[in-house]
Each structure stands twice: as structure tokens, then as C-alpha cells.
Design goal:
The complex is a heterodimer of chains A (258) and B (75).
Chain A: E1 17-19, E2 22-23, E3 26-27, E4 30-31, H1 32-51, H2 60-79, H3 88-105, H4 123-145, H5 163-175, H6 177-209, H7 213-255
Chain B: H1 3-14, H2 16-38, H3 40-43, H4 47-72
Helix pairs in contact in B: 1-4, 2-4
The chains are: A mainly alpha (258), B mainly alpha (75).
InterPro entries (chain B): ATP_synth_F0_csu, ATP_synth_F0_csu_sf, ATPase_proteolipid_c-like_dom, F/V-ATP_Csub_sf
Site (Reversibly protonated during proton transport) (chain B): 58
GO molecular function (chain B): lipid binding; proton-transporting ATP synthase activity, rotational mechanism
Chain lengths: 258, 75
């Protein structure tokens, strides 16, 4: 095992500076993470620009773009109600960015020598997205309801004796939201990529080991990794959907106090 | 027991939580399907709640995975 070389599944997540830039002791380099986020942005922009020609009889591309916007619009109006219309652009940006960034990380560009970097596999990215959602919830909540917003922590019909306990629990569950939002996305991406890396290296080291058992292990690993790749595509979509859905639910809490 | 073996055993024990989360996720989708087949008309309206339950159950498994990774790569 040691002869085959140690597997380093964490190497794929390293952030490398492409264009070093240091300003006043801060590292502001243009990294591969930033480069892949720009690619994500370009793909979303291209997709929407191609689909927004506003033809009377929509073509295939316009139908795809309208399907995507309609899906988000429906989700927002079901979860927030008519007042949520103004948040549709934000939810839409969140959903498309996360979805495209997740899917880009799965592209098999390694055979071309290009290493696709999953920008959503870092807590610094998903954490910022989560904090953005959380601060929008706070701002909207305090803007609309003022200090009445704190009634969020005391559900209707709570007995007087239970109020301190319920309020403490509700407060903790409220403050944990940004962490759980960001953590879920980044850990799901990390876990899937590590799984694929580990089983991918089993294929190589199995054939290298030779004998009767080695290739058998390789073939089983290969069949397994095909299934895992399909599962990962599903997870990419589900995580983007869950992030957008939870954001719209939290916004619902802030707009229509429960 | 030296540090390296204790580390690997600890990471393995922490990974049990992932299996427990698998039971939870299965429970969420199983219960949803069971009740959706009883009243298919109401099933579509509950899909948001289905994914909230899924997200909550899955998060705990992912945290178990993160703990296992932290233990495995701790020095």
C-alpha cells in the first residue's frame, strides 16, 4: 500500500494564486477560486442573455431560461406570498450561482489537464453567501417590524412559565442559521469530492497492484464511482435548491412574523 | 496505543454518525412516500417541507463527517 503512494484527497481543494497581488500586507491575489467563480458568472450571464430575446414564439433556449425563472418565482410566491416578489432576483442569483458552481466542479476537465475547482467547497464562499442571506433577513425584519421583530422568539400561545426557555431555544436556533446554511453546502461538496477522489485512486492502485484481486477491486470501484457521480449530480441540484428554499423560508419568517 | 492508531479508530467511530443520518434521511423520504400514496392530491404542496426535513437530517450526518475529517487530519 505504501509503495503505491499515499492518497491525498485534500489536495484538490488547495487555493492557488494565479496572479499574485499583495497590498499592505494583505494577500489579494487572483486565485483559481476567483477564476472559477468568474467562469460561473460568465456561464449564467451567457445562459440568461441567450434566453432573454423575448420572442413571441419561444425557442428551446428561451423555454429553458423561462423554466428556470418560473421555478424560482413559483418557489418564492409559495413560501413568502405576494410580498416576496421583490426577493425573487436575490433567490434566483443564489440558486443559479450555487447550482452552476457545484456542477462546474464536477466537470471531467482533468483529462485535458485543467483542474476544475469547486468554489462552493470552501466555507469562506458559502459562509459569505449564508451571512448575506442572514443579514437580509435581519434588515428586512427590523425594517418592517422594528423591535416587534423580537416576537419571532416567542411563538403564539406559549404559556407564561415557558417563555424564558422557549425564547432561549428559539434564539439559539435563529443564530445557528447562518452556520448551518453555509456548513451544509460546503461539507456536502467536500464529502462528495473526497469520495470520488478516494475511489478514483482505488481504480489506479488496484491495477498497479496486479494479481487476481487488484483488477477486481478496480472494476468494482469503477462501477461504484459511476453511481457516485450520478448521485453527486443529484446532490449538486438538491443543495442549491435547499439553500434557496431555506433562504426564502427565513425571509418568510422576517416578513410575516409567525 | 500510539497516536496514529487512536486517531484512525476515533475517525471511524465518528463516521458512525453518517450511518445514523442515513436512517434519518430514509425515514424522511419513506414517511413522505407513504403518506403521499395515501393522498396524492396533497403531496405536491408538501414538497417544501419534505426538503426541509431532508436538509435537517442530512446536516447532522454532514457534521459527523466533518468531525471525522477533523479527527483524521488532526496533528
Amino acid at each position: 500500500m505504501s509503495a503505491a503512494g499515499k492518497i491525498d484527497p485534500m489536495h484538490q481543494f488547495t487555493v492557488e494564486p494565479l496572479a499574485p497581488l499583495h497590498v499592505g500586507g494583505y494577500d489579494l491575489s487572483f486565485t483559481n477560486s476567483a477564476a472559477w467563480m468568474l467562469v460561473t458568472l460568465a456561464i449564467i450571464f451567457g445562459f440568461m442573455a441567450m434566453g432573454m430575446k423575448r420572442q413571441l414564439v419561444p425557442g428551446r433556449w428561451q423555454m429553458a431560461a423561462e423554466g428556470l425563472t418560473g421555478f424560482i418565482d413559483n418557489m418564492v410566491s409559495v413560501n413568502i406570498g405576494p410580498e416576496g416578489k421583490q426577493f425573487t432576483p436575490y433567490i434566483f442569483s443564489l440558486f443559479t450561482f450555487i447550482l452552476v458552481a457545484n456542477l462546474l466542479g464536477l466537470l471531467p476537465l482533468g483529462i485535458l489537464g485543467l483542474h476544475p475547482f469547486t468554489s462552493t467547497s470552501h466555507f469562506s464562499i458559502t459562509g459569505v453567501l449564508a451571512v448575506m442571506s442572514f443579514s437580509i433577513v435581519l434588515i428586512v425584519g427590523f425594517w418592517r417590524h422594528g423591535l416587534h421583530f423580537f416576537s419571532l422568539f416567542v411563538p403564539h400561545g406559549t404559556p407564561k412559565v415557558m417563555i424564558p426557555l422557549i425564547a432561549a431555544i428559539e434564539f439559539i436556533s435563529f443564530m445557528v442559521r447562518p452556520f448551518s446554511l453555509g456548513l451544509r453546502l460546503f461539507v456536502a461538496m467536500i464529502a462528495g469530492h473526497i469520495l470520488m477522489e478516494v475511489f478514483g485512486s482505488f481504480i489506479v492502485s488496484g491495477f498497479n497492484a496486479g494479481g487476481a484481486l487488484g483488477p477486481a477491486v478496480s472494476i468494482v470501484s469503477f462501477l461504484f464511482i459511476v453511481g457516485v457521480a450520478a448521485l453527486e449530480l443529484l446532490v449538486c441540484a438538491i443543495q442549491a435548491y435547499v439553500f434557496a428554499l431555506l433562504t426564502s423560508l427565513y425571509l418568510n419568517d422576517a416578513i410575516n412574523l409567525h | 496505543m500510539d497516536f496514529a492508531s487512536a486517531q484512525v479508530i476515533g475517525a471511524g467511530l465518528a463516521a458512525i454518525g453518517v450511518g445514523a443520518a442515513a436512517i434519518g434521511v430514509g425515514n424522511v423520504f419513506g414517511s413522505f412516500l407513504e403518506s403521499a400514496l395515501r393522498n396524492p392530491a396533497a403531496a405536491d404542496g408538501q414538497q417544501g417541507r419534505l426538503f426541509i426535513g431532508f436538509a435537517a437530517a442530512e446536516l447532522l450526518g454532514l457534521i459527523a463527517f466533518a468531525v471525522a475529517m477533523i479527527i483524521l487530519y488532526a496533528r
